Amino acid sequence: MITLADFDTHPDFPVPGILFYDISPILADPVRFREACDALTPEQGSVDVVVGVDARGFIFAPVVAQTLGVGMAMVRKKGKMPGELLESDATIEYGASELVLSPSGLDGKRVLVVDDVLATGGTARAVGDMLARAGAASVRYAFLLELAGLPGREALTGFEVTSVVEVPA
Fold first, then answer.
1. For the segment 118-165, what is each residue's pLDDT rounded down to a tens digit?
2. Which position among 32, 35, 56, 133 bears the catalytic label?
3. Residue 157 domain-assigned (yes or no)
4. Are residues 124 and 112 in contact, defined by beta-carbon separation less than 8 angstroms?
5. Which of 10, 15, 43, 134 is most buried (most C-beta within 10 Å)?
6. Is 93 annotated as catalytic?
7. Is residue 37 part of a domain?
8. What's the mean pLDDT when you consider all of the chain?
9. d(Cα 127, Cα 102) in Å, to the nearest integer?
10. Catalytic site residue 76?
11. How many domains does the chain have?
12. Distance (Å, rounded) from C-alpha 28 to C-alpha 30?
């Protein structure tokens, strides 16, 4: 079982006042990594496509998709993906980001969004907005970490949200 002890922490990174939870120890241990991916994976048959969020959601989403036997789509930072794209602005804990998503193949699909951290919910809400515009039938979220005391879960009211470990902000 993944716990707070599996993460390294770095105070004041990337800006003063932020406590950064480093997932590197989990990635370095194949048993822990598999446990993390398994904890992010819902029941088979409940998801049609997994969406990985740039950048660390990309680490877990392909494994979750392969385990479920479904495809994967990517949410990228603007300027990193070609083609016709949906765009959304995300306000996050220490800044802002412009995100993009290809709507191809998402219409009518049950989507699982996988990312490493739920903090303010800004990125997740932006992703959910793009998925709604792409015609997704349903959206649910799975996070490795949830920062307690921040409004992430409230920002996702109405959606199913799973987090593997809740940690102090």
1. 999 999 999 999 999 999 999 999 999 999 999 999 999 999 999 999
2. 56
3. yes
4. no
5. 134
6. yes
7. no
8. 94
9. 11
10. no
11. 1
12. 6
* Parallel, antiparallel or unpaired: strands 95-101 and 86-92: antiparallel
Q: Are strands 8-11 and 19-22 parallel, antiparallel or unpaired?
A: antiparallel
pTM: 0.95
Confidence of residue 94 (pLDDT cuts 50, 70, 90): low
Of 76, 93, 146, 153, which residue is the catalytic one? 93
H-type alpha helices, the chain: 24-28, 30-40, 57-68, 122-133, 152-155
- In 3D space, the residue among 93, 166, 92 whose CA is nearest the CA of residue 127 turns out to be 92
User: Residue 80: its pLDDT value, please?
Assistant: 92
Give the mean pLDDT of 17-26: 93
How many CB atoms are closer than 10 A to CB 140? 17
Phi, psi of 24, rounded to the nearest 5 degrees: -55, -40
Residue 25 lies in a domain: no
Whether residue 7 lies inside any domain: the answer is no
Residue 157 belongs to a domain with what CATH number?
A: 3.40.50.2020
Q: Which domain holds residue 77?
A: 43-164
> What six digits make up the tokens of 59?
């680490």
Closest residue by Cα to residue 148 from 163, 128, 138: 163
In this structure, the chain runs to a length of: 169
Residues 6+ apart with CB under 8 A from 29: none
